[in-house]
Automatic annotation (TrEMBL):
Signal sequence annotation: 1-16
Domain Tyrosinase copper-binding: 231-242
Presence of keyword Transmembrane: no
Matching Pfam families: Tyrosinase (PF00264)
MF terms in GO: metal ion binding; oxidoreductase activity
Protein's UniProt name: Di-copper centre-containing protein
Superkingdom of the organism of origin: Eukaryota
InterPro entries the record matches: Di-copper_centre_dom_sf, Tyrosinase/Hemocyanin, Tyrosinase_Cu-bd
Species for this entry: Westerdykella ornata
Amino acid sequence: MKLSLVVLSLVSIGLSAPFAKGKRASCTSKTTRKSWHSLTREEKLSYIEAEKCLMSKPAKLGLTGARTLFDELQLFHVYQTPEIHGVGAFLPYHRFFVHAHEHLLKTECNYTGGQPYWNEALDAGNFSTSIVLDPETGFGGNGVAPSNCIQDGPFKDYVNAIGPGEAISDHCIDRIVNECMSVMGNSTFVNQCMQMQDYKTFWPCVEAAPHSAGHGGIGGQMMNVFSSPGDPLFYLHHAYLDKLWADWQSQNLSARLLDISGTNRAPFPPFSFPLPGNDPGNVTTLSHVLTVYGAVPNVTIADVMDIQGGTLCYEYV
Ligand SMILES: *[C@@H]1O[C@H](CO)[C@@H](O)[C@H](O)[C@H]1NC(C)=O
Ligand SMILES: *[C@@H]1O[C@H](CO)[C@@H](O)[C@H](O)[C@H]1NC(C)=O
Ligand SMILES: *[C@@H]1O[C@H](CO)[C@@H](O)[C@H](O)[C@H]1NC(C)=O
Ligand SMILES: *[C@@H]1O[C@H](CO)[C@@H](O)[C@H](O)[C@H]1NC(C)=O
Ligand SMILES: *[C@@H]1O[C@H](CO)[C@@H](O)[C@H](O)[C@H]1NC(C)=O
Ligand SMILES: *[C@@H]1O[C@H](CO)[C@@H](O)[C@H](O)[C@H]1NC(C)=O
Ligand SMILES: [Cu+2]
């Protein structure tokens, strides 16, 4: 009994040290990710400008339907939807995906800030009056029936080439704000998740309430589990969920930088997961490979557990 306890604690020291110390040393210049509510007017406009740049730069990978770099990111999500939702890889994949988006803003569009996040708990139950929907320093407002296309803002005339769902078709950004859904992002629901003691219970809590609140509260394409990254609000929403995970991890960093689990099988068709050769067990592990088809190199979940572990190097304020 005593011996196995000693062995266990040695193993945990051996595993956690590279995360907590060695790897963190290689994260020397952190990107700061701020809340949209705290950005200056200039910071907001420079982010919007960079997103519009991604929406205008030609696609590089030759994927059917993608005209721009923005479309390509959206397609990565469409392709992998059954493997990255309702599974243990949900939070790691979306962390990596938002990182890829931020990376492209910087490398392709000279963006110098960090990926902003939308602190949705501040606006829960009242998305329609949120500053993120501002027509000038935000993403434009709600859609209007029957098309539900947005009517104002910097993305009013944007033609999105991917979606809805797995379709390839030209369409507007549509929204149908729903406050019965948005209320599920309030602090009561968030705090409930923050009190979970392990990833096995934390991840489904976040996916069910704050995650659904953002998608369902905005509605339209944001509500589509496949093509939701066609609304630029997606990236602020998922950066926020990533912040919740990072905040939860920081409550017990040494344990939670290594804590991954969760079902490893797609809960809906085509039930094709796990992929052959990639993390084939029923429970998601640290060696699970995450991909954005080379837009940035493949990583494993181990590489993205720590937002300051070297592969990633950012902080939330
Ligand atoms: C980024 O900056 C470089 C160097 O100043 C410039 O050549 C390039 O056109 C800029 N790219 C964009 C998309 O603004
Ligand atoms: C929603 O926000 C508006 C504007 O800030 C405010 O007048 C209204 O009382 C809020 N409603 C709720 C239910 O919080
Ligand atoms: C959050 O919403 C739930 C359901 O509407 C409500 O019971 C709860 O009081 C709300 N919490 C806060 C902090 O407003
Ligand atoms: C951190 O997690 C470990 C493993 O679950 C646990 O033994 C330890 O008590 C936790 N520490 C704190 C401060 O909660
Ligand atoms: C993995 O899950 C599948 C499908 O639920 C089940 O048939 C199989 O027995 C499980 N394997 C293990 C090792 O638990
Ligand atoms: C990246 O990961 C995907 C999914 O596991 C795999 O199909 C692909 O071959 C990998 N690419 C490289 C360059 O390793
Ligand atoms: Cu998703």
